[in-house]
Amino acid sequence: MNKEDKILIIGAGLCGSLLALRLAQRGFKVDIYESRADLRKVDISAGRSINLALSDRGLKALRLCGMEEKAREICIPMYGRLMHDKLGNTFTSNYSGREGEYINSISRGGLNAILLDEAEKHKNVKIHFNSGCEKVDIENKITHFNNYKTKKKFKVKADVIFGTDGAGSSLRKSYISERKFLFSYSQNYLNHGYKELEIPADSNGNHQISKGHLHIWPRGDFMLIALPNMDGSFTVTLFLSYDEGEYNFNNLTSTEKITDFFEKEFPDALALIPNIKEEFTNNPTGPLGTVKCGPWSYKDKTILMGDSCHAIVPFYGQGMNASFEDVTVFDEVLNQNSDSWETVFKTYQKIRKKDTNAIADLAIDNYYEMRDHVANPLFKEKRKIEMDLEKIFPNQYFSKYSLVTFNENIGYNEAMKRGRAQDKALLNLIADDEVHTHLDMSEEELKNILDTIEQETKEILKEDKIAGM
């Protein structure tokens, strides 16, 4: 491998644009091919993209590329969840008991745009839009494209091909169709899909509900969430079964039934969505799926990154952060290996795959937590204790959520194992009636709880290791 290698990246989304920027900063020649039009010139995202939550892992990758401050300029901090019940009552659940820990609501298009702008500043980067990848000859490193504007097909030969073209990756499909090596692949869907709606800004351009929270309307088998936008609006997302339950996407086909559904389940949200009927009818319903596959690379020729090899459901707010962290980890591998692309690719996957598998599983777990458990009294009690422990012992106790979201130097796999063991230890204490959140506990009492949790967590982790978990 050398700096004269011609690198081709399929997909100029978030992962592809950040990867291109970092490789360009390292001196490589990069060509990016994107099937869509230039999103800086054409609005292509309305009703089609869940709002993004940018947290520490994503910020670390942006910092690596010198883009953290520019990204923060288009962020809105969210300090916790604000839950809404059917009667319009609300209660908060902070993300952390420590000061200064929060996640950020950010526009997918806005973030993508500033990354493309920065990448284009480098003379060794060229971006080609309206160029849809049809297939990849992985052995000969030739990528076949279709120009959607001219309707002409063309092909490009490169020295190395990166597939950052999302869950429907053409490079991944070529791995399957060409059968050059043993390739494992799974794509599992939830029975729930999602649909985007909007709470507009008020007449003065201000947010109508708290912009410092991620809003959740948990209803057991389905839920509504809302994230703030810079223009005073909220992007609202309904997660609902396609065909199960009294209300589902398949039977919400009439204006009357749509209205009945929202009046019954989300009356306070309905009052803030003036165009509910039009938006519900016209905005698409998107699927929610998880992709796992391997190996990600083929010899020294091609490699998958981001959603193309580890797409996840959005319920931990880590999809973009995980893809950005791919770039961070890949960059670290490049720092340590320069013999060949094949060595780099294999080392990268060995380090990374266990973490992407872990966050995929955690995202499914958090789906059930967000739609149901957040309103459970036992969960509220657990969160209250965790907040107290993080506040009093900020350098000793980290909840599972904090390990995943605010500890960018801990891998997802380690965060999952430690967090799950810790949760079990804490829930055992609550179940055994050894802690009570309705009592004001002293620092000494909290220290005793912390010591017990730490000891039980170690024992649980030891047992899990013996069991091969």
Notes on the protein architecture:
Helices cover 40% and strands 23% of the residues. The protein is α/β, with parallel strands linked by helices and 469 residues long. It has three domains: 6-77 and 106-187 and 290-368, 3-Layer(bba) Sandwich (FAD/NAD(P)-binding domain); 191-287; 376-466, no CATH class. The strands form four sheets. It has a seven-stranded mixed β-sheet with strand order 6-5-14-15-16-13-17. Strands 8-2-1-12-19-18 form a six-stranded mixed β-sheet, with helices on both faces. A three-stranded antiparallel β-sheet has the order 3-7-4. A hairpin with a 4-residue loop joins β9 (131-137) and β10. The model has no long low-confidence stretch (mean pLDDT 93).
Strand content: 15-25%
Q: Structural class, judged by helices and strands?
A: alpha/beta
* CATH topological fold name of the largest domain: FAD/NAD(P)-binding domain
Shape by Cα distribution: globular
Q: Extract low-pLDDT stretches.
A: none
Q: Describe the biggest sheet?
A: 7 strands, mixed
Text of the CATH class of the largest domain: Alpha Beta
SSE arrangement:
Layout: E1 6-10, H1 14-25, E2 29-33, E3 52-54, H2 56-64, H3 68-72, E4 75-78, E5 80-84, E6 90-94, E7 103-106, H4 108-120, E8 125-128, E9 131-137, E10 142-147, E11 153-157, E12 160-163, H5 170-178, E13 184-199, E14 213-218, E15 223-228, E16 234-241, H6 255-265, H7 267-270, H8 276-282, E17 285-294, E18 297-298, E19 302-304, H9 307-310, H10 319-336, H11 341-371, H12 377-392, H13 400-405, H14 412-431, H15 443-466
